[in-house]
Amino acid sequence: MTRRDRTHDCAHGHPGGGAGTDRYSRRRLLGGIGAVAAAGLAGCLGSADGGDESPAEPIALDEGQTCDVCGMTIADHYGPAGQLFYADGKPGDRDGPARFDSLSELLASHEERVARGWTLRDAFVTDYSRVEYALRKREGVIYISSHVAADAFADATTLHYVVDSGVEGAMGEAIVPFGDRDDAEAFVAAHDGEIRGWDDLL
């Protein structure tokens, strides 16, 4: 079962659409993919002292939540979003994860927080294999739609990331995640770029 999420007008923060939009169907993946693979990323995930915090679940980012880095409303902008759950109740100013409207901001923020001694419990990003996404060309630039429902997010450590494709999101060139490697390869064939794993991005 597929779901259509709106595309957004990146310049003005309003929903967009129209004849410039091409829709690509992607098959939904079953939940719980590759959870065991995350365990091999030493020093990246999980409490160092074997703490008893339960695994997190992704939340919807469609209620006006803003990006922790740039402050923009996540649902109002193009591209993949992300959420990071840290140990010891961090960030301490809310009941929930750190939130981002682009993966470049997510990665930069995560690097800074790890340097301050934070421990990542769980990471979730938009999985474009789970959604029916749209590409929209505006003034010669191709933008990829945003999907912020809870079931659009997947374990970031298991996905295949297309980088250097030239397709843009909220903050410039997007890092586009796919749960299905065939979908990532099809995206590269259409838009160029390279495929990387989570550990390659860190």
Secondary-structure blueprint of this entry?
Elements lengths: L6 E3 L4 E3 L4 E4 L57 E5 L11 E3 L2 H13 L4 E7 L6 E6 L2 E4 L8 E3 L4 E4 L4 E2 L2 E2 L2 E3 L2 H11 L2 E3 L1 H4 L1
Antiparallel strand pairs: 1-2, 3-7, 4-5, 4-6, 6-9, 7-8, 10-13, 10-14, 11-12
What separation lies between the terminal Cα atoms?
A: 33 Å
Q: Which percent bin holds the helix content?
A: 10-25%
Number of helices: 3
Looking across the biggest beta sheet, what order are the strands in?
A: 5-4-6-9
Low-confidence stretches: 1-51
Number of strands: 14
> Sheet bearing the most strands, described?
4 strands, antiparallel
- The total tally of domains equals 1
Give the overall form: globular
Cα gyration radius (Å): 16 Å
Derived structural class: alpha+beta
